[in-house]
Structure formats: structure tokens, C-alpha cells
Amino acid sequence: MSLRASFRPGSVDAEKRTVEVVWTTGARVLRGFYDRFYEELSLTPKHVRMERLTSGRAPLLNSHGGYSLSGVLGVVESARIEGKQGTAVVRFPKAEDDPEADKIFRKVVDGILTNISVGYRVHRFEKVEGGEDKIPVYRAVDWEPYELSLVGMPADAGAGVRSEASDTLAPCEFVSRSEERAMSETAAVQDPKTPVQATAPAPSEDATRAAVEAATRAERERVTGIRHAVLVAARSMPTAGIGDELADQLVRDGVSLDQARAAVLDRLAAESDKVRTESHVRVEAGEDASDKFRRGAGAWLLQKAALAGMIERAKQECPGHAAFRDLETDPGEFRGMTLVDLARESLERHGVKTRGMAKLDIVGRALTFRSSFNSTSDFAVLMESTMNKTLLASYATTADVWSRLCAVRSASDFRAQNFYRQGAFGSLDSLNEHGEFKNKQIPDAEKTSYAIGTKGNIIGLSRQAIINDDMGAFNDLATRWGRAAKLSIEVDFFALLSQNAGLGPVQGDGQPFFHAANRGNVNGTGSALSVAGLDADRVVLAQQRDPNNQEFLDLRPAILLVPIGLGGEARVLNGMEFDDTDNKFRKPNKVRGLFREVVDTPRLSGTRRYLFVDPAIVPAFVVAFLDGAQFPYLESQEGWRMDGVEWKVRIDYGVAAVEPRGAVTNAGA
To answer: What digits encode the pLDDT tens for the residues 72-91?
Structure first.
């Protein structure tokens, strides 16, 4: 069951990404179609089972969409009962970890989404006095909330309650307070979208009367179940024309509830074929057989290619990424199967007989098979999913330098993007003798531009490779492609940095990015890597001024970048306690701990070194991604140029030098 509630005004913490909500007030709600009664939730602490909601693992869902990982928007951090209401604090993931959840969080921040619904289950009802129009009142004195959901419906307790798309019965007990006896041992509360059937009082000794009552209850459950199944189907496919006429016909025909559900599914399948829809329509609750097949078989393919370890490392590197979140690596029943076995399994799960079929035919049919509700075959989706996880895991675990030196930005399109460097106001002016304040001119800003582009390739998997069970070689290609996507940015960054003999790309004034006279970000003495040389570099960086030359920026280095041959010496200089140039007096090392990180790379040659400010403070270089998508994108189609499947991988990004004040270079000696 679920009950609508709302956010507490002004409770959004944008930094912590948390919101406080009121998820119940225990309001009395009219329930049922035939046997109508008022439901009232007791807020006495001993009547509410809070363990699941206070565990720190209860989900925040999108409209009770608990049957798919994409429906999870966040987590319930804490929950409690406060007097006459239940409150909770929910937390959304970081924007970069889940962009889709962040879009919803922004609507919460802007006050567009304000309504919360709580999913709960009642274990015991108690009949109380005080109902209107002779309608009984049942108070839930043993009930359990288990999830919170963002919903679009307004917080209107008078409109009743609603639930997820399920007609599962939750066992509970009805007790009369006045008589203090059980009304039924097996009473059930049904989905709030459908009539809730309160069982009649305990049967008398008259067996005939008991049988009549049982038959009446069964008929009511059949009728309400049929109408609910039709309602869910109508909402899943509004264009199918499914409505009360179908429900009335199924009720009149006297078919069982299971037969009625099958008839509704058949109608949906027929309508889906008519309109040639490409959407995936599913009216069953929970993880279906196709989902289980893809999950288990995918786990086996990852283990088969010895990639489970890399996947686990990727989960640690990117714990919030949708591709790795809750990813399992236990193949279960699919362990030991070949690719042809999996192709055969995917077909037979949909009723396709494969006995007598050649391996080429099995693989070809598995790659192109479409069920009534699927626009892509299970086997093709399995291959694409495994390929995608391998590609993303390889990308996430590939070591690089650029991510430590560059700031990351998002670009909305492929047009030139502007990066502005604001001037400073200087110090505040003194008031004159009349106590008047002077106007302060807003300083002009410097501007530089950058743009993004696309890089990508196509790889294919032939039917022959599938028959040869060559998934290991295929995943090895996917691994190398993930590495190639990450290193594409690395190569472009160092190509930009190495221009003009290591002074960087030419800027608008016709001079390179690092220029002593125009930008003051070059230590012109060209000193060797030493305590004195690094200290001189530090002074050059600190003397940088703002674009209007109003004040010193007093920037401090955070990262030292050197060629691979100087990495060891640089780490010694950054960590040693004493300056070894003065052994007589044991002079302290004045640059000890100056750098948060020393980075060495074979992509630099010679003796030139670079000192970078923390890119989160002043970014010298930026890497911009289209719409902030930092991972490569994969899509597939049935092979046209080859007999099999082709995958296209691409990544949209651009590398640019934007702020000369964020770094200093020294040619070394």
C-alpha cells in the first residue's frame, strides 16, 4: 500500500543533497468498493515496525518503481515518528554519479516536485468506533513502512491511497476492540487501487453459511482482481483501447483470475503488433525471466573472459555509476555454458524449438529474434550489455594523468564554448568626509574559447566467432577499446601541452600559453630540479596577478609534473626532511611537502617541469564532455558489412588551455 505525503518546506540541503519529508500523518482514509471502511494508521511507536525504514538501506523510488534499478533515486538516511506524523531524511546521489536522478533532485530544489508517497504493509487491524454513515473504522495497530517514493499526485489524504502496480495480497488480522476477538485468521488487504476486501466476521457453526460467505469472498476477489488487471494494462498502453468493456466481458464469462490476466496480456500483444511499437511493454511485476537470463548469463560471460576482477575494481572506482551499481558476478545456473548454449537458451525461453537446428542457424536466429514485447533479442541485449560493462570498466580502471591536472566541464553542444576569467576589484575605498560611498567599476573579464569533437570506431563479432566460443578474444578487444577511449584524452592533452617546445598552444595574442613577458608563468632562469629551483618556481606562481593587474593571486602549487626520468628525484625533494645541499648545518628542506602529488610520465621528454595549481581552484587546462557524459557510449546493430553483430563506440570531448595563471613551467637544466 502507499499513502501520499509531502516535503517539509525549506528542508532541502543542496550541498548534502538531502531533503526532509513528512511521509504520514495517520489520516483516516476511506477504502474499498464493496465493503467500504475507513483506514487509520496508528502512530503509536509500538504499533509501527520501523526497522526497514531506519536501516539506512530503504530506497527512495521513482513512483514506486522498485522492480528496476533505474527506478531508485536515492536512499532513506533516517526516519522517525514525531507525535502525530512520520518524518524522514532522504538523500540523492551526486550529480555526476546519476544524472537522471539529479534532474529529479533539481525539480525538488526548484519546488516543482513536492509530493512523497510511502509504501507500507499492514499486519494487524483493530476495529474502533466513530465511523460516519455506519461505515466501520479500522486502525492499523501493526504496520510496516518499507520505501518512500517521489510521485506527481498532490498530497491529498482525502483522495485516498494508491499503490504500485501489484495485486499481491498482504496477510493481516482484523480485530474488534469492543469484542477483543479475531474477526478472521486469514483476512487480506489488497492493492489500494482495487477494492480492499475485509473478511466477514468469524464463521458461525452453520457450515452452509460459512460456505456461502467463502464463495462470496472468492467472487469479489475475482471481480476486483480482473478490474485491477485491466486498469494496469490500460495505463501501460493507453492506445490499446482496453477499458471497462473488456473487464465487464471477462466478469460475465466467469473466467478465473489467471485466465483473465492471460486474456489481457494477449490483448496487449495483439495491439502491440498492430502499431509496431518499439517500446518494451511489461505488465508483470518484479524481475522477469529475460532480466534473470541476462543478469546470470552476463555474469558468466564476464567470469568466462576473466574480467570479474576488473569489474570489481571499476565498482570501487565509480561506485555510483549505473552500469556497476548492484552488479552481480555470480553466474549461478549459467556457469559452464558456451555462447552457442546461451543462444539456444535465449530462444527456447521464448518457445522457439532448436532441436535439429545447425549452430549457424541458432546463432543467427538468436541475434535477430523478437518477442511480442521486445524490440531487441535477449541474446543481442546480453552481448551488448556484456560489451558495455567491459568497455566502461576498462575505461574506469585505466590510469591517466590528465584527470589529475585538468578540470572537467560540461558542454551543451559542439559549438565553441566560452571560458571567462574575471578581474578583481582590488581593495575597498575609504569613505570621504561626508560618509559617501564611491561607485566601483566592474572590471572587464578575459575570455577564451574551446570546442568539443567526437572520436570513435566500430568493432564486430561474427557468427563464426560466437560458434568458436571466442568471447575471451572479443572482450579483450572491448577492454583495449575502453583503454583507448581513456588514453585518447591523455594523448590529446599532452599533444596540446607539448606544442611550441613545451610552452603550450598559441593564444589570442600570438604567443604560447606559457610566456614570461606576456603572462609571467615561466621561470626564465631554467634552473635544475632542486630545492632552490622549486622554491623559485613557487615564487613565480605566487606573483601572478588577476586579469586587471589589481592584486596578487598568491596561488600555491599542488601538483608537480615531470618527465619519467625525473620522477624519483622529484619525490625525494618533496619528501626529504633536510636540504642535502648543506650537509654541515642540516638545513631544513624549505620545499618539503610543497606538492600534494608528484606526477611523472613518459609522454614528456627532456628536463622541463610544470607546477599546477589545484584544478578545482584555478584550472589551467579543462576537458569538456558533451552533456557531462564522461564515459564512452556504446550502441549496436545487426551486422551489415559482416555476418554477425557490430558495435559502435564513441566519446564526445574537447581539451583546451584556458587559464595561464593556473600553472608555471621551468625548462630545467
So the answer is: 899 999 998 887 888 899 99
Query: In this structure, what C-alpha cell is assigned to residue 183?
Result: 474477526
Closest CA to 611 of 539, 509, 506: 539
Listed residue (536, 69, 76) closest to 326, CA to CA: 69
Q: Is the dihedral of CA 318, 323, 329, 335 positive or negative?
A: negative
Phi, psi of 461 (to 5 degrees): -130, 115
Please check whether residue 594 is in contact with residue 60, taking contact to mean a CB–CB distance below 8 angstroms.
no
Q: How far is CA 406 from the centre of its chain?
A: 24
Which residue in 464, 424, 404 sits closest to 601, CA to CA? 404
What is the per-residue pLDDT across 25-54, written as a single tens digit (0 to 9) for each?
877 777 764 467 778 888 888 889 998 888
What stretch of H or E contains 571?
Answer: helix 567-575
R_g over Cα of the chain: 33
> Three-state secondary structure along 213-266?
HHHHHHHHHHHHHHHHHHHHHHHHCHHHCCCHHHHHHHHHHCCCHHHHHHHHHH
Burial 12-40 (b: 16+ CB within 10 A, else e): beeeebbbbbbbbbbbbbebbeebbbbbb
Model pLDDT for residues 611-633, shown as the tens digit of each residue: 999 998 889 999 999 888 888 88
Helices then strands, each counted (H, E), the chain: 16, 24
Half-sphere exposure at residue 434, Cβ-oriented, CA atoms within 13 angstroms: 3
Mean pLDDT value across the chain = 76
SS3 content of the chain, % helix, strand, coil (to 5): 35, 25, 40
**pLDDT above 60 (res 170):** no
Beta strand 115-128 with 2-7 is antiparallel
| Start-to-end C-alpha separation, the chain | 74
d(CA 584, CA 587): 8
Instruction: Using the predicted structure, report yes or no on whether residue 2 has a pLDDT greater than 70.
Output: no
- Dist. CA 121–CA 146, nearest whole Å: 8
| Residue 484 neighbours by CB distance under 10 Å | 19
Q: Which of 111, 110, 139, 115 is nearest to 23 (CA)?
A: 115
How many percent of the chain have pLDDT more than 90?
20
Nearest Cα residue to 58 out of 40, 72, 46: 72
pLDDT value at residue 180: 39
Q: Are 632 and 436 in contact (CB under 8 A)?
A: no
pLDDT single digits (tens) 472-494: 556 677 788 788 888 999 999 99
Residue 164 scores a pLDDT above 50:
no
Q: According to the per-residue pLDDT averaged within each range, which of 66-80, 251-265, 365-379, 653-667 is highest?
A: 653-667
Burial track 233-249 (b if 16+ CB lie within 10 A, e otherwise): bbebbeebebeeebbee
Residue pointed to by grid coordinates 589589481 = 550
**Are residues 125 and 141 in contact, defined by beta-carbon separation less than 8 angstroms?**
yes
Q: Is the pLDDT of residue 326 over 60?
A: no
Distance of CA 303 to the CA centre of its chain: 24
